[in-house]
Amino acid sequence: MFPARAALYSTESSGAVRSAGGSFAKKEAAQEEMYMHKREAEKLEHLNEELDAKYHPKEGQAAAKDNAKAPKKDE
User: Fold this and answer.
1) How far out from the chain centre does Cα 70 lie?
2) pLDDT tens across 37-68, in order?
3) Phi, psi of 23, deg, nearest 5
4) Contacts of 6 (CB under 8 A, 6+ apart)
5) What is the mean pLDDT of the chain?
6) 6 φ/ψ angles, rounded to the nearest 5 degrees
7) Which of 3, 56, 69, 70 gives a 20 to 30 Å CA spacing to 39?
8) What does the domain layout of the chain look like in residue ranges?
9) How far is residue 38's CA from residue 32's CA, in Å, rounded to a whole number?
10) Half-sphere exposure of 75 (CA within 13 A, CB side)
11) Which family does it belong to (predicted)?
């Protein structure tokens, strides 16, 4: 899913340095791939954090939710 997006940014006609070719073009391509890889990793980390928060709430939050749902007893 994500690597296809990186290919969209890595066309042969993008950037003057890349179209000139040579070692600078290779360096630019490598830097672009590193940037895209880092962005993908950040997005996945953020998504995992959201899913963990949704499906694995912390104990304190879970206990508070359980107390709120429990019927109150008159003593």
Assistant:
1) 37
2) 999 999 999 999 999 988 887 755 555 566 56
3) -70, -30
4) 32, 33, 36, 37, 40
5) 76
6) -60, -35
7) 56
8) 19-55
9) 10
10) 0
11) Belongs to the ATPase inhibitor family.
**Token duo for residue 75:** 């003593």
Q: Please identify which residue in the block is written with the tokens 């391509």.
A: 29
How far, in Å, are 2, 32, 48, 57 from residue 38 at the CA level? 11, 10, 15, 27
CB 33 within 8 A of CB 6: yes
pTM above 0.85, yes or no: no
Instruction: Report residue 62: phi and psi, to 5°.
Output: -65, -40
For residue 30, what are the CA distances in angstroms to 12, 16, 23, 35, 47?
14, 15, 11, 9, 26
Provide the 10 A C-beta neighbour count for residue 10: 15
Record the tokens describing residue 14, joined without a space: 């993008």
